[in-house]
Amino acid sequence: MKSALEAIRAAAHEQLQNTADLKDLEEIRIKFLGKKGELTAILKQMGKLTPEERPVMGQLANEVRAFIEEELATRQKALQEAATKEKLRQETLDVTMPGKTRSLGHKHPLTLVLDEVKEIFIGMGFDIVQGPEVELDYYNFEALNLPKDHPARDTQDTFYITDNILLRTQTSPMQVRTMEQRKPPLRIIAPGRVYRSDAVDATHSPVFHQIEGLVVDKGITMADLKGCLEAIVKRLYGQDAVVRFRPHHFPFTEPSAEVDIQCFGCHGEGCRLCKGEGWIEILGCGMVHPKVLSNCGIDPEVYSGFAFGIGLERLVMGRYSIDDLRLFYENDLRFLEQF
């Protein structure tokens, strides 16, 4: 029995020194110290010994058990430390390496041009005002001299929420709201999103942006309107930009006009973008109708004014030679990253 115990001690020592991971270490513990292990099998034979031999063999068996347990603990500690070092080595960060560059967002082309337009108008003494996109029928139509039976109030062109509430079809309601709250002289622009029931194509969208302008003071004439708009267009497109004014009709202005710029796709020759006309409409304008002034409590015998509504998308298309309005809303990074 003494020889067997010494053999167990030697075998356990050798195997523990050669074990490479914690899983093998557990297998060795079970092999020698488990309920069916080699040391347990030896101890079961203690009953065969004489009374004199039992204490001696018992003490030796305890020494062997203590030796194996100490070796197990020492080897376990060493393996755990080695595993920790290896994990740290694999997870080590080189703090001197450059970090991953994250792409930063930037302004949308519509915002870029809108900011520039704002700066131009601010330099000309205009204030910037904002208004609700969900508007009352009164401000969107009635106060602007559009009677109940006017075609522009048809449900096929306007997104009605109730009979009296709608998504604004223009930023012109800000004319009325501003004139109700402030008295002349007035010089404001009102940029914002508007909604119309239009079919989507290269130059139309059911959601787009307008920049409404209004000037009211004594002695304002059509010449002031024409000079203001020509200055804006030339600031945006260069001094060689070609502009034309066409007589038109709007219920809230009299006289009225539409303003076109020469097509930036074909330069007047006719193409898909301008639908063969060589010109692209960018805004409507005119002298504020006397009835609109009266509706807002301003005496048309004393004051006059002009108003205009610029389509922001078409300004941007001309500025960057973009031939399809839909590109602004598709969120294609290949397009947006160019700005």
Please tell me about this protein's structure.
- There is one protein chain.
- This protein has helices at residues 2-18, 22-33, 38-43, 53-91, 109-123, 137-140, 173-181, 222-237, 290-295, 312-320, 333-336; strands at 127-128, 134-136, 165-167, 186-195, 207-217, 243-250, 253-262, 279-288, 304-311.
- It has 339 residues and is an alpha+beta fold.
- It has two domains: 2-91; 109-336, 2-Layer Sandwich (BirA Bifunctional Protein, domain 2), CATH 3.30.930.10.
- The protein has a seven-stranded mixed beta sheet, with helices on both faces. Strands 2-3 form a two-stranded antiparallel ribbon.
- α1 (2-18) runs parallel beside α4, α2 (22-33) packs antiparallel against α4 (53-91) and α5 (109-123) packs across α10.
- The relative contact order is 0.10.
- The mean pLDDT is 85.
The first-level CATH class name of the largest domain: Alpha Beta
Distance between the termini: 89 Å
What's the β-strand tally? 9
Oligomer: single chain
What is the second-level CATH architecture of the largest domain? 2-Layer Sandwich
The mean pLDDT is 85
- Helix-residue proportion: 40-55%
The CATH superfamily of the largest domain is: Bira Bifunctional Protein, Domain 2
What proportion of the residues form beta strands (DSSP E)?
Answer: 15-25%
Question: Biggest sheet, open or closed, and with what strands and sense?
Answer: 7 strands, mixed
Domain module count: 2
Q: What is the CATH T-level topology of the largest domain?
A: BirA Bifunctional Protein, domain 2
Largest sheet: spatial strand order: 1-4-5-9-8-7-6
Radius of gyration: 43 Å
